[in-house]
Amino acid sequence: MLGLGAVAAFLVCTGMAMYHSDPSGAVVRHGAATVPTPAVTPVHSASHPASPSASSSTHPVPPSASSSASASSSAWFPERGNGDFVRAAGGTEVFGHGRLLRYAVDVEGGLGQDPEKFARQVDTVLDDTVHGWAAGGQWSFQRVSTGPVDFTVHLASPGTTDTLCAKYGLDTGGWVNCSGGDDVVINVKRWLLLTPYYKGKPDLYHALAVNHEVGHRLGHNHVGCPGPGRPAPVMMQQIKGLHGCVINGWPYDDQGRLITGP
Question: Where is the DUF3152 domain (predicted)?
Answer without folding.
Answer: 76-242
